[in-house]
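Sequence, please.
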């Protein structure tokens, strides 16, 4: 008979890679996902049950979420609670775990232990939230991060001393295979998959691309919704590279694969990342990855990708040009990246959680 697992946090269901993992977990556990915000019925899946707070109850949302979790724990008697992030899911998970004597796994997925003051980003900038996050982590039976980079941020900034399990979220690499990749040649096709927002720092990307395009024929495709009110398009005009850039806007996840297959080099210049799934997807597609030293790029820098310090567009442009001129380095990075992706697949990620769950339940 299957053990029962409840997952707290609607965000887990809305992230494609997270949802894919939950579907695999549901093959071994009776899984119920409880969302702190309303999820439309069209988002239901066959593999697991989804319950969410009613629509239009924003003011009472967190209280309704807490009551829904308590009711589910009382009625379903789960063997383990899996929380997506720390607030409100983690707070509710820890309280429910204490009430019903259920072990809680808290999975960090964002900037719970980080902060970028220049753009007012990250939980660390809110003293109350940082304190709350620290409390949740210390009360959890197990804590996971997506990368060593994120783990170090949490340990250093939240002064967390307990064990953290680093579990990158993998992909089904077979889905991304694009056949044999050849040496990168002009015209170089650059790609970015990230919504336009200050934390993704497309300003650095465009400055780097301007320098690169002065030395080699190139184009850049930006996939992602614009939350910068047209500022990045305006910067492209100002830099004189507007004709070399395609703003694709929002693209459904199941259609992004075509963009990877049509690209040579993936640029990612974020100021912060907990992981950056687009980087993993690019590597799985055989696309060379160059960007800033954050998230999974920081973990794999030098072996599977090229990184520079955040905002250093001049060095990034220089290193990209060197990579274009060095076929042997292209092959080394691509080979290492594909090896890492295959070793840290979606099934591997799921198995890590199975191990955690069984250890805590046992």
């Amino acid at each position: 008979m299957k053990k029962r697992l409840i997952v707290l946090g609607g965000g887990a269901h809305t992230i494609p890679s997270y949802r894919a993992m939950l579907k695999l977990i549901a093959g071994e556990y009776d899984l119920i996902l409880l969302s702190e915000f309303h999820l439309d019925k069209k988002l239901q899946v066959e593999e697991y049950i989804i319950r969410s707070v009613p629509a239009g109850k924003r003011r009472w949302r967190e209280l309704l979420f807490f009551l829904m979790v308590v009711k589910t724990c009382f009625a379903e008697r789960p063997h383990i609670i899996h929380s997506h992030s720390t607030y409100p899911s983690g707070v509710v998970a820890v309280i429910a775990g204490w009430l019903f004597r259920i072990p809680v796994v808290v999975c960090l997925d964002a900037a719970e232990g980080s902060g970028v003051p220049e753009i007012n980003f990250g939980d660390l900038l809110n003293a109350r939230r940082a304190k709350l996050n620290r409390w949740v982590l210390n009360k959890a039976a197990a804590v996971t991060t997506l990368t060593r980079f994120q783990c170090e941020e949490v340990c250093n900034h939240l002064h967390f001393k307990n064990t953290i399990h680093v579990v990158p979220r993998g992909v089904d690499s077979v889905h991304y295979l694009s056949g044999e990749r050849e040496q990168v040649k002009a015209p170089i096709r650059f790609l970015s998959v990230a919504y336009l927002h200050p934390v993704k720092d497309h300003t650095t990307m465009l400055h780097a691309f301007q320098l690169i395009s002065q030395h080699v024929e190139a184009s850049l495709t930006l996939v992602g919704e614009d939350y910068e009110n047209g500022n990045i398009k305006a910067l492209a005009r100002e830099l004189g590279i507007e004709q070399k850039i395609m703003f694709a806007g929002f693209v459904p996840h199941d259609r992004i694969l075509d963009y990877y297959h049509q690209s040579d080099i993936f640029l990612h210049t974020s100021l912060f990342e907990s992981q950056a799934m687009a980087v993993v997807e690019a590597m799985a597609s055989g696309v060379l990855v160059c960007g800033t030293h954050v998230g999974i790029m920081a973990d794999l820098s030098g072996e599977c990708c090229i990184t520079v310090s955040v905002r250093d567009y001049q060095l990034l442009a220089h290193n990209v040009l060197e990579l274009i001129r060095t076929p042997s380095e292209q092959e080394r990075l691509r080979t290492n990246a594909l090896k890492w992706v295959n070793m840290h697949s979606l099934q591997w990620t799921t198995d890590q959680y199975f191990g955690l769950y069984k250890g805590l339940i046992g």
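The CA atoms of residues 31 and 77 lie 12 Å apart.
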